[in-house]
Specification:
194 residues; mainly alpha; 10 helices; 72% helix; 0% strand
Length: 194
Amino acid sequence: MDDTKILELFRKQDEQALKEIEMQYGARLKRLALQFLGNEADAEECVNDVYFKAWNTLTTQTPEHLSAYLMQICRYTAFNMIDYRKAQKRNAVLVELTAELEQCIPDDTIQNNQTELSEILSDFIHTLPKEKRIIFVRRYWYGDSIAEIAQALHCRESKIKTSLFRTRKKLEKYLKERGVSYERKGFAQIHDSY
């Protein structure tokens, strides 16, 4: 069943809509949740929360890309679960990814200008050559490890690290050109050593 028909089921509040998204997107959502949460039980709970949130929002909203919409809900739900369950000891993957991106996107920029920043990031990603775009999105959207990306693209981890480093530098320059910049006061430079 295509996304248009699934969204129509949601608008009618037909429970078949949940079965359809589970069949079409359940495995991808669980993989994403598992990537951040680290265990099956938490990943299943996260995916169930995604279904619940989709049920409550898709009766009135019509996203352009259902899969991206569901993945975004999944990511935010996973991050909220991490914050709730490990307030003092954040998940190592999330800390690692945050530390990498903090090199070019300060936390206060994310909090204060989220919509504008999302648009700029989307524009930036579309400027990248295909391979660099895949590497960047797999790392910072899906949370894949450097080893996983290297294996999927049949290349060395050093190539992935170099690509990510250079792409972050380009992103920093791209953000500055669009008026999004900050001073690194006491900021330790992070290197891809993991």
